[in-house]
Amino acid sequence: MCGIFAYIGKNNAVTTVVQGLQRLEYRGYDSWGLAIPIQNSIEVYKTLDPLQTADITPIDVKGAMALGHTRWATHGAVNITNCHPHVSSSKQFSLVHNGIVENYQALKTQLVLQEVKFVSETDTEVIVRLIENELNQLQLKDEIQKESRLTPKDYQTAISQVFKKLEGRNTLVLICAELQLLIGIRNGSPLIAGIKPNNITADSYDELFLASDYYSFAQHTHTCLLVNDLQMICCEQNRVQLIDLHTNKSVEPDWQILERQELEHSREGFSHFMIKEIQQQWETIPRAAAVERQQLEAMIKAINNANNVFITGAGAAFFIGEQIAAMLREIAGIFATPIPAYESESYLASIEPNDVLIAISQSGETADTLNFIEQAKRKRALVASVVNMPGAMLSRLSDFAFLSYAGPEVCVLSTKSSTSQLTFGYLLAKTVIHQYESAKVEIEQLIHQLSHYFNDENLQIIESLAQKITGDNVYLLGNRHFIGAGKIGALNIKEASYIHAEAFPAGELKHGVIALIEKGTPVICFMDETNATYMTAIASEVKARGGMIIGISQQPNELFDYMLKLPVTDNSASLITHIIPCQLLAYYLAIQRGHNPDKPRNLAKSVTVI
Predict the structure, then answer these.
(1) Distance of alpha carbon 237 from alpha carbon 201, whole angstroms
(2) What's this model's pTM, rounded to 2 decimal places?
């Protein structure tokens, strides 16, 4: 959830860290803060103000080192006291944290019995106090040995000892003022390092970045180290050391060059990132389709040899997975079973060696999905993944790893990443039946049509419709290839506007759903030439009960009170774009109700805790 960004180098550290945090704000925007070494002490700056409009002029420090954090609250209210970074009593070090310490109450109880005082409600402060205890014991040992002060090795020992006591998926980064030391350690939650090498030695640098994702520092460098679980990275005096916590021994860092991608981070004249990212989809879909046939064929060979094919994801990614499963069934004749990652336990008994599990994720760090993948691999299943974030743990765990190439998605709602993942699914299904080239042609034609969809007339129609939806409930009905579009659309409407939206297979209408229809209830009906007769009958039944019919359709229908056009017609790849009208409707519903669609309440884009 939370975002971490640290910097050591020649530039103004405070400015660099704030800019990095702005790129990480999608991970949490309840509060943010900085830890800055000044002489031999840590100064902390914390605020509840938005990061995107951050004014750092009060922080008149131009040092070469700083640590920052943007918070999604898990333990403790959203206030300055609970805001990170948390600082030691001596102000010698400061700590930021991403994750949940599942056993923090037991650890805190032990500390309270030792008369340790707490000032916040967070599980993170428990870690700080535990490290203080470890350092105090090491300090006593040093004094006996007549050593004058704590060393980097002492800090490494203390943080590794404490980390082994923590249960759950956690990542920590600690900064020490006196030693100009930066230490990061991870288990489950993401951590990635980047350097600008100075060519003196392999692991020395002019600038170093330590962050929750690659995009946050990609404008500075593409030379990266993907920190693995139970590894600790120690950065001091222009040197990097990587330590395996299993053995407590140094290991050789595996620096690699990650692929360059489009990295713009401005609204470019748009009112919000959400509307910008929706309208970018005619550009991002072709990038997602740039998958080489050989990559797909290697995965297809594994699918053909498998007894079972499963698809998983969490939240929007699971609904995308359901849609891809439907493509594999209907286009390729492959029976694929979708499994929500957070309900994997009840399916594990069905997974056999060499089965294929396809995981969908925007961040590639979703805790529930990673947990499922790890369990499936223990049963010797093969894993394929479709991820938007380079260097993500999910990709590293995969036998077949694919990138979506949607670029940074600042809005919490998945829009362009969703259509990119659907594009992959369509290309995969068509390649199974040896229609890779024709699928590429269809996607090219789709892009041309989609580029004309985002015109002022269409946008004004959808904005006007949003003003007419004034109630607290919206229902979405469709069948076959529209069921996934309905589920994703309902989620988008809920996330952005806080309206209760729910999608049903149209066939469920007479089996209970119709009881929800009152006079004026907005009901969205998805319709094209393949289901027009069936959906016309469904719409007439809703209309008879007084429902307000909103058709998302190719053609007008006398039953529609309002109609939104499907973006693409007469193209078998059009199902990639079925989700776009509800993306736009969700955006305008949020605006009409006075909400910020980029930052829905209580949500974060990357769900790295269970």
Answers:
(1) 13
(2) 0.90
